[in-house]
Structure formats: structure tokens, C-alpha cells
Design a protein that fits this description.
Elements lengths: L1 H6 L2 H6 L1 H15 L11 H29 L1 H21 L6 H25 L1 H6 L1 H25 L6 H21 L13 H8 L2 H32 L3 H25 L5 H21 L3 H15 L2 H12 L5 H29 L3 H31 L6
Helix pairs in contact: 3-6, 3-8, 3-9, 3-11, 4-5, 4-6, 4-16, 5-6, 5-9, 6-16, 8-12, 11-12, 11-14, 11-15, 11-16, 11-17, 12-14, 13-14, 13-17
């Protein structure tokens, strides 16, 4: 049965939903200069935009599961893409000088579409994950990064050629094309993966390691998305770089992050994981310090490359450890892990809106620096817990 499902193109096409997810979630950080936000000091409004995204994601939790159970993965994937396309078209009409709350509502639509998309994708690709989890996670991360990179390059390349409404209309075509592909794809019916015993899951979730791994993932994605959401504004206002150039540097950040994750796969069999994790976290702290102190383009590029390259290996290493420590697989379980990471990622730039309005835009790099310190402390605690629990569980302490 599993071989028949894997032979179908449906799971492989469903995996491309991560590309669409990257487009949806990275859109706000890239569109802010086109909304003339770099000319304003109303940082609280930027935080409000991220509140809209978070609200949409939370609203999708129950609706997406019901859609999936009643209509199946293919229909749900296509619907999510259709909602995303409508959301971008709505934002095209709600661009400045329209009332800002209309844009908050449009971003809630984008967040809702992303949440529905995640639920359907995790369900549709579950046969691939059970067959080859490492390859599936790697491909998902690469496609997600390519989506983030693509929408940033599109906006930066057409920044002076098109208005903000025109840009958002073009972006609406991306989920529309993928939605059409999902409509034309026949998804083989298969039952949802059986839930593991509730007692087994609860026993794992009560362990200190589970809590610390979840917190580490939460803070790490917060670090990544705090930079992704505010980097373009930070470079324009703090360093004096033009909006188009700041967007190209944001694309450089996504590229460095993507290359870092791909390079991590090469390094995993060759480097001790604990050293790779610790080195990545320390390098990210140095990158934040460089970006906070720089006042020129060279320093900005150096800090961006260091940040993106060091952030890259952390997520695959943590997910690998979660999968090894908590082997119970269920699509909803990993969808929950991913949703937790996304919540942390969007909460950080949301809070930055308040912090920047109080202390200035320089705090944009202060929050990821503090977050990286927290991640480093959590890594030490996880390493200590693994040392103490090794005799009891009969596991190796090598991370």
C-alpha cells in the first residue's frame, strides 16, 4: 500500500506546498518597504501586521482539520491556495493610503491560508515521511526557503517598476498556479496515520527534554523571523541603505539561510552535532553584534551572511533530535511542532513593533541576540539532561 502511494505524484506535488508556505509567511517582511513603512517611525503598526498573521494562523487550527476530514488533502490544498490568492488581491486594494486595519485583515487571511495549507501538506506527505524522513524534511526545508527567497527577489527586482498593488497582484498568481496543480492532481485515498497511545505521548511530553526542545525551537524560529521581518526596515533606517538594496540584502539573508541548511546535511555525518549546534549559536550572536554596530554596507553584508549561515543548521539538528528522542510519528504531531515554531517566529517580530516604538529601531538586532543567548542556555541544559538520563535510558550522550 505504501509503495503504491509513493509511486503516485500526489505526495511529491503536495510537498511543493512548503514553497507556497514560504511565499505566504515571508511576504510581510518583504512588502513593508513597498508600503512605504521605511519612511515612517510607526513601528507599532508593523507589529500589528504580524498580529494579523498570527490571528489567521490560530483561526485555522480547527477549521483546517475539519476540511481535511470531510474533503481530503487535495481539495484542502487547493482551497488554501485559493484563499491565499484572494488574500493577496485584497491586500492589493488595501495598500497605502488605505486604512491600515484593512491590511491587518488581509494579513489575517494570508495567515489563515497558511495554517490550512500546513495541515493539508503534513497529512499528504506523511507516506513520504514514513518511507524516508530525512529526505522529506530536507526537501521541505529547501522548498520553504526557496519560497521565501523567490518572493523577496520578485519584490526587490520590481520595486521601482511596479506599484505595491501591482506587485501584490503578481504575487497572487503564485498560489493560484499551485492551487490549479493541486486541483488537477489525484490524491490517493488513505487513512490518517493512527494516533500513538495518549499515555505514551503524555509521558514523553512530561519529560524536561521535551519542554526544552520545544522552547529551543520556539526561540530559534523567533530569532530567524525577527530578522526576516525587520531586516529591510532596519537597513534602510539604521544604515541608510535604499529600499531596493535592503530587499536584496533580505534576499541574501534567505539565501544564506538556505545554503546553511543544505551545508548542514553535508556536515552532519562529519561533525559532532553538539559542536555544530554550539558553534552555530555563537556565530549567530556574533552576527547580531556586527549588524547592531555597523554603519556601512560591508558590515551589513558580513553580519547577514554570518547570521543566515549560522541559523541554517540549527533547525534540522533540533528536528532530528526531536525525531530520535520522540519517535511516535503522526502528521498532527509534526504539524504541531511546525506550528509552534511558526508561532514563535511571528511572535518575535510582533513584539519588536512594541520594543522599537519604545527604544528605537536598533532593538531589532537586540532581540535576536537575546534569543540566541537563551538558545545557547537551552542547549547546555539539554546536553546536561542527556548526560544524566543516559544511564537510565541506555542511550549515547553524543548529540
Amino acid at each position: 500500500m505504501t509503495e503504491g502511494i509513493l509511486a503516485s505524484a500526489a505526495p511529491r506535488r503536495a510537498l511543493t506546498g512548503f514553497f507556497v508556505s514560504g511565499v505566504l509567511l515571508s511576504f510581510l517582511g518583504a512588502i513593508l518597504p513597498a508600503w512605504q513603512q521605511h519612511l515612517s517611525s510607526d513601528y507599532g503598526l508593523v507589529g500589528l501586521y504580524f498580529v494579523g498573521l498570527i490571528t489567521g494562523l490560530l483561526a485555522s487550527v480547527f477549521a483546517s482539520q475539519r476540511m481535511l476530514e470531510r474533503k481530503g488533502a487535495g481539495w484542502t490544498l487547493a482551497l488554501a491556495c485559493m484563499i491565499a490568492g484572494c488574500g493577496f488581491l485584497f491586500l492589493a486594494f488595501a495598500s497605502p493610503p488605505a486604512f491600515a486595519w484593512w491590511r491587518v485583515g488581509g494579513l489575517a487571511i494570508i495567515g489563515f491560508a497558511a495554517g490550512v495549507l500546513h495541515t493539508a501538506v503534513f497529512h499528504a506527505v506523511s507516506p513520504m515521511y514514513r518511507h524516508n524522513p530525512v529526505a522529506t524534511v530536507n526537501l521541505a526545508g529547501i522548498l520553504f526557503g526557496l519560497g521565501c527567497l523567490s518572493v523577496t527577489l520578485l519584490i526587490s527586482g520590481a520595486f521601482y517598476a511596479y506599484t505595491a498593488p501591482a506587485l501584490q497582484t503578481w504575487i497572487a498568481a503564485i498560489p493560484a498556479l499551485f492551487g490549479w496543480m493541486f486541483v488537477k492532481t489525484r490524491f490517493p485515498p488513505h487513512r490518517a496515520a493512527p494516533h500513538p497511545p495518549v499515555r505514551a505521548i503524555l509521558s514523553e511530553l512530561r519529560s524536561p527534554a521535551a519542554v526544552m526542545l520545544a522552547l529551543l525551537l520556539f526561540f530559534q524560529f523567533g530569532n530567524e523571523w525577527a530578522v526576516a521581518g525587520w531586516l529591510a526596515l532596519f537597513l534602510s533606517q539604521r544604515v541608510g541603505i535604499s529600499p531596493a538594496s535592503s530587499l536584496r540584502m533580505l534576499a541574501l539573508y534567505w539565501l544564506a539561510l538556505l545554503v546553511g541548511r543544505v551545508a548542514a546535511q553535508w556536515a552532519l555525518p562529519r561533525v559532532r552535532h553538539a559542536r555544530l549546534l554550539a558553534g552555530s549559536v555563537l556565530a549567530s550572536m556574533l552576527g547580531c553584534v556586527i549588524l547592531t554596530a555597523t554603519n556601512n554596507r560591508f558590515g551589513a553584508i558580513s553580519g547577514i551572511l554570518l547570521l543566515g549561515g549560522s541559523f541554517g543548521p540549527i533547525y534540522p539538528l533540533v528536528v532530528e533530535k526531536i525525531g530520535r528522542r520522540f519517535p511516535y510519528f503522526h502528521p498532527g504531531f509534526y504539524n504541531g511542532i511546525f506550528s509552534l515554531a511558526i508561532a514563535g517566529g511571528l511572535l518575535a517580530p510582533c513584539l519588536l513593533g512594541y520594543f522599537a516604538s519604545q527604544w528605537g529601531v536598533w532593538v531589532v538586532m537586540g532581540l535576536p541576540l537575546a534569543g540566541s543567548m537563551i538558545v545557547f542556555v537551552l542547549l547546555l541544559l539539554i546536553w546536561l539532561e542527556a548526560r544524566l538520563s543516559a544511564p537510565a535510558h541506555g542511550i549515547t550522550t553524543a548529540v
